[in-house]
Specification:
Layout lengths: L1 E5 L5 H11 L3 E6 L12 E4 L14 E6 L5 H11 L3 E9 L33 H16 L3 E6 L2 E2 L10 H8 L2 E5 L5 E2 L2 E2 H13 L4 E5 L6 E2 H12 L4 E5 L1 H6 L27 H6 L6 H12 L14 H14 L1
Helix pairs in contact: 1-5, 2-3, 4-6, 6-9
């Protein structure tokens, strides 16, 4: 097949390229050449901005386009309309963040998505990101109808993740000693190896599947305790986990998801965020790499980064030490 990818050189994009090429497909990348421009030297690259240079795609035909970089419905509409007669299928990478809330356990593809009072808003914030993605989905469906495929990804993890939201844990646990851990070992979390989701997307394209799919890990399958213990076993460290109660973390302004990644409290409005229903994706062929393999590969990749890498998520050593000392005095 011939597959056009809008983006394709960052995280999910680069793994999509690998998945497609491993199956013998011909890939073309359309991007600005600002991220990893030398990646994939044997892959065709068309340089351009998706807001100004879509004319460069005229006269070409592809079996599918995968939009990995659509965040604003106005911009997504431009590419969808420009490609509606050039590609057979439009694949849009969305997010489970589109859902209106996570009070419900077992959210599925039919549950309501978030809405914006003003749909012309283009400032991307924590509050607008999900509803804007939902509007992007609707835009693709309006233009491509049954030729659209929407992937609502959860937390993607693995090598080349620029967010550090998962990488923090394998690296931190590998350093050993006392490790500040969030809340309780039995708190459930949900994530998926980016390579599994990439393979799943290419398989769906090959089979001309349309519709909407939640693509994340199995609900009820993974706890923070299992995650951290797996990191310890894989790295062979002497890590000693110090579980900080939720009230302690809140008192000291430790932020879920950013200061202590992967973890969200299992109370309140986010209670169902780690139990998204992926039954439809499982039936369509989504598979899961063993956690130990994801941890190992992530750790090996992280060790190739510069020593002065600026972390995007997780506690600094100084902040963690401070919190561990405070925790010691209250336990």
């Amino acid at each position: 097949m011939k597959i056009l990818i809008l983006g394709g050189t960052k995280f999910l994009g680069r793994h999509l390229v690998n998945s497609a090429r491993a199956r013998g497909h011909e890939v073309t990348l359309f991007n600005r050449g600002q991220t990893n421009p030398d990646l994939f030297p044997r892959v065709e690259k068309i340089r351009g901005d998706r807001e100004r240079d879509l004319d460069q795609l005229k006269g070409r035909n592809w079996d599918a386009v995968i939009d990995t970089s659509g965040y604003l419905p106005r911009v997504v509409r431009m590419s969808a309309e420009a490609l509606k007669d050039s590609v057979d299928q439009y694949v849009f990478i969305s997010s489970v963040s589109v859902y209106r809330d996570f009070i419900k356990f077992g959210i599925n593809e039919n549950d309501p998505v978030g809405r914006l009072p003003d749909e012309t808003v283009e400032e991307i914030t924590g509050e607008t990101y999900g509803p804007l993605k939902a509007l992007c989905e609707k835009t693709v469906q309006d233009v491509f109808n049954i030729r659209s495929l929407i992937i609502r990804s959860g937390l993607l993890v693995g090598p080349h993740d620029p967010t550090d939201r998962f990488t923090y844990w394998p690296v931190r646990v590998a350093r050993g000693a006392d490790v500040l851990a969030p809340d309780r070992p039995d708190v459930v979390t949900q994530l998926s190896d980016v390579r599994d989701v990439s393979d799943f997307i290419i398989e769906l394209i090959q089979n001309s599947v349309s519709g909407i799919f939640n693509a994340t890990g199995l609900p009820h399958d993974l706890t923070m305790g299992t995650l951290l213990e797996t990191c310890k076993v894989v790295s062979g460290s002497d890590a000693n986990f110090k579980w900080a109660p939720l009230d302690f973390l809140r008192k000291h302004h430790v932020q879920p998801w950013s200061d202590l990644p992967v973890w969200l409290p299992d109370d309140g409005e986010d209670a169902g965020s780690a139990e998204v229903d992926v039954t439809k994706a499982l039936q369509a062929g989504l598979k899961f790499t063993p956690l130990k393999d994801t941890v190992r590969d992530t750790l090996e990749w992280a060790r190739t980064r510069p020593a002065d890498h600026q972390w995007c998520a997780g506690l600094t050593p100084e902040r963690e030490k401070e919190l561990l000392e405070l925790l010691h005095h209250v336990q």
